C-alpha cells in the first residue's frame, strides 16, 4: 500500500495511464487474436478465398479500431493518421476508415479550450483577447487551434495543448510499441522516430522561440516570405499565440489553380488527370491529388505532423507562379540549414501557405533542428560533392563513410545512392530507371541502411519533403545539391574547417 501511495505522489496520473493501457489491450487483444486465428485457418486456402475472408475481417474490425483511436486520442490519433496514408502497412479498408482522422479530428468545446488557456496562463480570456472564437479552426493529436483578436486589433491564432498530453503520450507510446512488437515488429524503428519527433512538439515555448529566430533570419532577406510572429506575453509551454496568416494550404492552392486551368480549357480536373491535355507545364506534370502524393515513397521518412490547420479562404484567380514559389521554398530552407543552422524539419505542403497577395507563408515550427558550424560545413561539403555527380563518386563514398553513413554490408554503391536519394535527387537516372519506392526496396534488399548521421536525419527529411512538394506542384524532378550549390559555397567560406570552438548552437532556456 505504501509503495502505491509513493508511486501516486510521484505520478498522479498513474491510475489514468494504467486505465488507458488496460482499455487498449482489452479492445486490441481479442482483435489481434482473431487475425492470428484467421491466418492459421487460411494457410492452405486459395488467393481468392483469402482475399474475401481478409476483407470481411477488415470490414468487421476497422470501425472498432477507429472508435478506439478516437476514444483514446493523443498518440493514437497520430498513429491512425500515419496508417491512413500508408498502403504498405495498412489494408485499404482500414485506410478508408482512418482517413477521417486526417482532417476531421474531434476538437474540445470552446468552454474547455478557454479553461485550458486560463489555467495555463493564469489569466482570464477577457483580459487577453477582445474576441475569442469558440469553434476550433483545427485539431490534431496533442492540441487544437482557435482564432482570436487582441485588444490592439491584431488577429491571432491560439494553439493550445491538451492537459497532460505530454505525460500520457509517454505511456501510450510504450503501449503502442508493445503491440507493434507483437503485430508488426518491423515498424519499431519507425515508431522510435515518431516518438522522438512528437516529444519535440510538446514545448510550445520552444516553438515560439524558433518562430522568432527563423523569422529574423529569413524575412529581411526574402520579402515574399511571411513567418508568423509569436506573441510572447501570451505564450508558454502549453499555449502559443501567434499572428494569424490568411492563406490557403499549398495543396489546396495547387488544386484550385488546376481547376481554374481546366475551366479555361473547357474541361474538368478529372479529364486533365487522365493525360488527354498536355498544356500548362504538361498539366503540371499531371495534376496531383492529395492521394497521389504518397509519403510512403519518401524513404519511410514520414509526413506526420498536421500542425495547426489553416482555414480555407477564397483563392485569387491570379495563376500560381509555381517556378518562383518553389525556387523560394528551396532557397529559404537551404539558408535555414546551411547558413543559419536552425531549420524547420517538417516543410510538408500542409505547412506552406499561399497568401492572397501571392506571398508564401511558412508555419508550424514545432520540429526544429539546429546544426553547429562544423555540421553545416560538413553538409555543405557533401552537397558540393553530390552536385558534381558520378565523376567524384569514390570521393563522395569516402566522405559519407567518414560522416557515419552505414549499411549492413557497407556496399559502396548503396552508400553512395543512400546519400544521393536522401539529400539530392530521386529522378529516373538516380533511381536507375525504377520508381522511387521500387528503387528503395531494391537498395534495402541489396544492403539495408543501418544508420544515417543523427545530425543529418532531419536535413534528409527536409530534402525529401521539398522534392515531394516539387512533385505536388508539377515543378518536375530537381537536384537539391544544384539548387543549394551557391549556399554550400558560401557556407564553406563562412565557417573554417577547424573552428576554434563549435559550441555555437543557440541554447533555448525555459524559464
Automatic annotation (TrEMBL):
It holds the Pfam family ABC1. CDD domains: ABC1_ADCK3-like. Residues 131-509 form the Protein kinase domain. It comes from the Eukaryota. One of its GO terms (molecular function) is protein kinase activity. InterPro entries: ABC1_dom (IPR004147), Kinase-like_dom_sf (IPR011009), Mito_struct-func_regulator (IPR051130), Prot_kinase_dom (IPR000719). PANTHER family: ABC1 ATYPICAL KINASE-LIKE DOMAIN-CONTAINING PROTEIN (PTHR43173:SF34), ABC1 FAMILY PROTEIN (PTHR43173). This is Protein kinase domain-containing protein. It comes from Batrachochytrium dendrobatidis (strain JAM81 / FGSC 10211).
